[in-house]
Every structure is written in C-alpha cells, then in structure tokens.
Amino acid sequence: MLADASCERNTDVDWAQVRKSYPAQQPLLNLNNAAVSPPPFVVEQAVIDAYRFISKNPDVNMWTGLDLKLPDIKRRLATLADCDADEVVLNRNASEGLSVAIFGVQMSTGDRVVVSSWDYPSALGGWQQRQSREGVVVDSVTFDPLASDEEIIGAYSSAICPATRVLHLTHMIHWTGRVLPVARLCALARERGIITIVDAAQSFAQMPISFRELGCDFFVTSLHKWLGAPVGNGMMIIKRGRLRETWPLLASFDATPDTVDKFDHWNLGTYNSALQAGIEPAIGFHQAIGVGNIHARLRALTRYWTRLAADIDGLQIHTPLETETLGAVSLFSVDGIDAVHLERVLRQSFSVHVKYRRVGQLEGLRVSPHIYMNEADLDVFVDALRKAVKYA
Ligand SMILES: Cc1ncc(COP(=O)(O)O)c(C=O)c1O
Question: Of 78, 382, 110, whose CA–CA distance to 236 is shortest?
C-alpha cells in the first residue's frame, strides 16, 4: 500500500502513487478541493458496484444488504474522530448536520448564541432564522483572521454573557483556512455550562482531530472534502449526554429519543446506500497514508506555492503560514487587481480553477490543493498567476 497505517508523520509516502490513485482533473487544474474533492478510484468503483447491486433488488439490497456494513463504518469513523460509535450520525453533508444542531438545541426567547462573521453562511442563516422566529439573540464576533489565538479567544470571551446558551464555532474558517483554537474555546464554554457546536467541515480528515479533546457537544463535517468519500456523505457526532434533549430536524420514523437514531440517515427518508458504500474504502485509503502525513503534505504544498509566488508585486496572503495548523486552504489577493476578474482570467486563459471568496471587507481567491496534487501543478498555477497579474 502507500505507507503505513499510522497517524504519525511518515516521510516515505509515495505521493506519485497517490496521484495515480485519483482521476486526472481536467480540463481545469482543480485548486478548489475545499469545496469538494474527487474520490480516489477505489471509492468511485465501490459506489458504481454498489449502485449496480442496488438496481438488482433495491429494497433488499439496500436495507438488508449494504446497510449491514454501516455499524462497522461508524466504528471506523469513530476511530478516526476519536469518539464512540454510538455518538456517530451518518447524513448527507455538513450543511445538514449544522441545521440539525442549530435547530435541535432547545432555546427560549432571550437565550443567546455567539457566532462569528467567519462562520459558514448557512449556519449563520440558521441562527438568523431562530432569531426571527423565536427571539433567540445572535451575538456576532468579528476578529482579524491573522490575529493571535489569544486575541481571538478574547473576542469570543467578551461576547459571552450570562444569557449565552450556545457557542457556535468553525474549526477551520473556510474563507481563509485559518484554524481557530477551538479546544480552548470549548473549555471556556464548558466552564460556563454553554453548549458548543463545532463546524469541522474543513478540518476533519485534513488534520489530526479528536472529538474527545475538542470537548464539544456537536461536531459536524462532510466526508466528501478531505476524507475523499463520495459526494453526498456527511457525519455528525453528538455527545451522548445531549441526545435526549436535542430535537431532530426531520420527524423520525421509529427512533428512540435518547439514541443517535433520531438524527441518523435512517430517519432522513430514503437515501442512497451506494454513496455510503464508498465511505469504507475512503477511510481505508486515508488511513493507509495517515492523517499526520496528509496534513504535513497539504501544509507543505501551501507553503510551496506561497513562497514561489512571494515576489509577485502586491501579493497578499490572508492566511497565517507559519503555524503548525496550516493546511491546504489559503486566501490571497493582489493589490490593485479585481479578484473576480483575476479568477476569470485564470480560468478562461490558463485553465486554473481557484475560488473567489468575499466576506465583509475581505476578498480574494482561495487556493486549496489536495493530496493527489504535486509541486509541478503549483508551478503551473503560479506561472499562470504571474502572467494573469501582468495582463489583468
Ligand atoms: C466550514 C464549512 N462548513 C460547512 C460547509 C458545508 O458543507 P457541505 O457542502 O458538506 O454541506 C462547508 C462547505 O464548504 C464549509 O467549508
């Protein structure tokens, strides 16, 4: 296989072999893996096989065939996330998990939630909805994503008050790739009896992560970004003690009130078991490389392209580069050049796909390579960027 199965960093990974295990990205150089990543071939094939199997006898083959593997899939995901298997919910994506948590927590008029302007828009939309419909009060924190951990913790702490019931946190900010000191923020919340929701859509499987160490109540992620599972898979982890008091988003068919069943895919209506059949090979592929190696490689790729591009006039990087939490995601802008235009030129003239992002006053282009990419891809990108900036 590719390397040993440990989570520790191992420099012997054959990255060229990893690259061959993925479908070639064409016609665009895909530097937007933070949105959704391609699955390795082994995952793609498992889905195709499962889909054909389902077609032969859908009812039986899905629900008493493929589903037999789900307890084992949950056990393996629990190992990756360091939680108990009976705290794991399988669903369709992180957006779904966010809504389950946001609308599921019991709150009364006047109860407050602390969010940040960097949180995922549909999470903020969920909280706004609770504010409009129920009178829950949303307190929004703002901070410079280049600020120190201490400053960020200070910003959250000063927004917390006695009426705060929930702290909503994003582990890796998807706009810029900044990783927040979430374990420390959860500790701060726990001391005050505040419920924590952690959006780990960008961090899970991109970097070593432990649900137990984060110490949150709700942990939400998709599996189609950094784990490489098929598009349409998400996971939520709910601390056992929160199960009974949390409402499910969709009415359950036959779930007991204090188990994860009421949030689980069984109770989300008919779902596509073929997509779930791709989770296990994705975990196997991921574990064979090791999450420590994956994170180190992604960090190295980000440092590689940012150093290469450093002499481009007016280039600004909006992501802290010299931290151990740096991963694949970063945001840049070029002084005096419209980012929307630059994105278009890169795509239309150079077949390079990066993502325009704007939040508040900050706008730029997000770059997110994945483990199937290499330095040569980033040479192509930086060369294209140099030319695009010159002629923009
Ligand atoms: C931080 C964050 N949260 C939530 C989501 C939503 O994820 P999904 O597409 O799985 O619903 C994303 C997607 O990019 C994200 O980056």
Answer: 78
